[in-house]
């Protein structure tokens, strides 16, 4: 009897082990660990709406990426963080990659996915325009501009020169105010006109402190204004991660193109907890209407050439840089073709 009991117990044990193996095989497959990518954005701005959509709609996560987003406050600080390994990817103006190349970097910074394709600033007047706005009305005025050498200032001066205005001779040009303090300076009485980003431009309109009368983004044309970039060494070591990253950006760009202003504003609102939802909607609408959000990540040769035209006009370009030397469109082209 003891022998029969042992044989039965052995059979039950074998059956149990077999069943466990079957159930184990039918369970969920082990998922791959997510890849961490550290992004440094030059500032926190509604202008970068597609980036925040990629985070909040789960597009980065769906690609197996664990994105860490940090605001690095300024092009020079953003590029320093990238070059020293503090971040993996920078979201900043393409002109910064040219500045690095002009300094002779042995590990060039490569633009691989465009996010915005126009300047994001607006001409704000202290008084509403009377009838059709005439750029010549700026002559002799005090103009509160952006920091010298930055893309907003260069796009602003490019536009002024296009309309026959010499910024240094025809205006009382103020460029010594810190970026973060420009709205406050104008609100306190400095300048007849100011070049402002959103949401300050819309907020000034709502408060009766200023009036948007022109768009530097529309006037200066398409250019790779804000682009995701990284060091060539990082591209060489992490091509798969960068492809997934660019796929997520393309998903966000498609989503933004297909979504209403209200839906986009709802998606990105968590990144702007101190900004009224109606202001977010107004800013998104203004940028969407003028085509500031790029529809794909490709930096084409025409945009790259226009960028350098703007830099040349501002006296900030030592020599023109070949499109292929600082732009790698492989990831964006593949994402555009494959992501639906």
Automatic annotation (TrEMBL):
SUPFAM superfamilies linked: Periplasmic binding protein-like II
User: Cross-referenced Gene3D superfamilies, in alphabetical order?
Assistant: Periplasmic binding protein-like II
Keywords per UniProt: Signal
Task: Provide the Gene Ontology terms for cellular component.
Answer: periplasmic space
| Domain of life where this protein originates | Bacteria
Quote the PROSITE patterns the UniProt record gives. Answer: PROKAR_LIPOPROTEIN
Q: In which compartments does the protein localize?
A: Periplasm
Record flagged with keyword Aminoacyl-tRNA synthetase: no
Establish whether keyword Signal is in the entry: yes
In the record, which residues are listed under signal peptide? Answer: 1-20
What family name appears in the similarity comment? Belongs to the bacterial solute-binding protein SsuA/TauA family.
User: By what name is this protein known?
Assistant: YtlA
Whose protein is this, by species?
Answer: Paenibacillus mucilaginosus 3016
Top-down, what is the taxonomic lineage of the species of origin?
Answer: Bacteria, Bacillati, Bacillota, Bacilli, Bacillales
């Amino acid at each position: 009897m003891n022998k029969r009991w042992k044989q039965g117990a052995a059979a039950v044990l074998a059956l149990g082990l077999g069943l466990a193996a079957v159930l184990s095989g039918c369970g969920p497959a082990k998922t791959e660990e997510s890849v961490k990518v550290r992004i440094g954005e030059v500032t926190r701005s509604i202008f970068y709406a597609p980036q925040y959509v990629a985070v909040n709609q789960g597009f980065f996560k769906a690609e197996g990426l664990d994105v860490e987003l940090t605001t690095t406050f300024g092009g020079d600080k953003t590029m320093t963080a990238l070059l020293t390994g503090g971040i993996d990817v920078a979201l900043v103006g393409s002109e910064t990659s040219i500045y690095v190349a002009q300094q002779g970097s042995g590990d060039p910074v490569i633009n691989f996915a465009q996010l915005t394709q126009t300047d994001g600033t607006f001409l704000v007047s202290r008084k509403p325009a009377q009838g059709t706005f005439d750029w010549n009305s700026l002559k002799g005025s005090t103009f509160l501009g952006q920091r010298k050498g930055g893309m907003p200032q260069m796009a602003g001066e490019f536009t002024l020169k296009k309309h026959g205005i010499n910024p240094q001779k025809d205006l009382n040009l103020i460029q010594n105010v810190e970026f973060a303090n420009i709205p406050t300076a104008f609100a306190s009485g400095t300048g007849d006109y100011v070049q402002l980003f959103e949401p300050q431009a819309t907020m000034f309109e709502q408060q009766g402190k200023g009036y948007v009368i022109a768009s530097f983004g529309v006037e200066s044309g398409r250019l790779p204004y804000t682009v995701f970039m990284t060091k060539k060494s990082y591209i060489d070591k992490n091509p798969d991660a960068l492809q997934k990253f660019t796929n997520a950006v393309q998903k966000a760009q498609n989503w933004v193109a297909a979504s209403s202003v209200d839906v986009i504003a709802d998606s990105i609102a968590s990144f702007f907890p101190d900004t009224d939802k109606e202001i977010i909607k107004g800013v998104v609408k203004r940028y969407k209407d003028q085509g500031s959000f790029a529809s794909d990540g490709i930096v084409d040769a025409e945009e790259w050439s226009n960028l350098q035209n703007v830099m040349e006009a501002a006296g900030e370009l030592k020599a023109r840089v070949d499109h292929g030397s600082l732009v790698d469109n492989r990831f964006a082209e593949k994402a555009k073709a494959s992501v639906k």
